[in-house]
TrEMBL record:
This is Lead, cadmium, zinc and mercury transporting ATPase Copper-translocating P-type ATPase. Its main location: membrane. InterPro entries: ATPase_P-typ_cyto_dom_N, HAD-like_sf, HAD_sf, P_typ_ATPase. Its EC number is 3.6.3.3, 3.6.3.4. Keywords: Cell membrane, Hydrolase, Ion transport, Magnesium, Membrane, Phosphoprotein, Translocase, Transmembrane, Transmembrane helix, Transport. Pfam families: Hydrolase. It is found in: Cell membrane. The chain crosses the membrane at residues 186-203, 209-227. NCBIfam families: ATPase_P-type. GO terms for molecular function: ATP binding; ATP hydrolysis activity; copper ion binding; P-type divalent copper transporter activity. GO terms for cellular component: plasma membrane. It is a multi-pass membrane protein. GO terms for biological process: copper ion homeostasis. The lineage of its organism: unclassified sequences, metagenomes, ecological metagenomes.
Length: 234
């Protein structure tokens, strides 16, 4: 991938090494390899005859990325990273963060296919913020976009984190688990209540006054139980 343009009648290329038309230079390649192992992405510059140089770019890792991944692994989650960068760059970042699996040099549509293959093993949660993450966010069972990212990724996600931080991902998973627990508790209570009270009502063992009192109380219990979610968030 890259771009090409003519300047003063001479054509130049800027992009990854495979895009360049110039022959590979061993000296430049060694420098690029050393930079990539440190987590830098190399953008090459060349004309028709030779490589002219390279620009080393380095993404800033979010401060809470490592702690968030550690928490996810503590919760029993497997963390994978999909990246369009070269394998050396992606592996360097993964080693710093403690990521379980790395897939590098992935095109946007290939990310969606990779998510689809992971779904054969279970539910997949995808987190992304770039334009090229949109297809994968759409494919995932649950998707989270970082609000500071591209608009298309935000539009494709189920959940949007408004701040440029990853900590809410863990909070969202914990909240979803508590929500499921509350739902199961309320359904169980409602079934037991009806299983006990309906037969009594059919046998005329319950007076209208008693039923009028007990029915709203049962609803209040369900609402109060659900309200515990908000209390936990505070």
């Amino acid at each position: 991938m890259g771009v090409s343009a003519k300047v003063d009648g001479k054509r130049y290329w800027v992009g990854n090494l495979n895009y360049l038309k110039a022959p590979e230079n061993i000296e430049w390649s060694e420098q690029a390899s050393a930079l990539e192992q440190q987590g830098y992405t190399c953008v090459w510059c060349a004309d028709e005859h030779a490589i002219l140089g390279l620009v080393a770019l380095n993404d800033q890792i979010k401060k809470d990325a490592k702690s968030t991944i550690a928490q996810l692994k503590t919760m029993g989650k497997t963390v994978s990273m999909l990246s369009g960068d070269r394998i050396q760059v992606a592996q360097s970042v993964a080693n710093q963060l403690g990521v379980d699996h790395v897939t590098a040099e992935v095109l946007p549509n290939d990310k969606a296919q990779h998510i689809k293959s992971l779904q054969e093993q279970g539910l997949v949660l995808m987190v992304g913020d770039g334009i090229n993450d949109a297809p994968a966010l759409t494919q995932a069972d649950v998707s989270i976009a970082i609000g500071s990212g591209a608009d298309v990724s935000v539009a494709s996600a189920d959940v949007v984190v408004l701040k440029a931080t990853l900590a809410p991902i863990v909070e969202a998973i914990q909240l979803s688990k508590r929500t499921q627990t509350i739902i199961k508790q309320n359904i169980t209570f409602a079934l037991l209540y009806n299983a006990f009270m309906v037969p009594l009502a059919m046998m005329a063992k319950v007076t209208p006054l008693f039923a009028a009192i007990v029915m709203p109380i049962s609803s209040i219990i369900v609402i109060a139980n659900a309200a515990r979610l908000r209390k936990n968030q505070e």
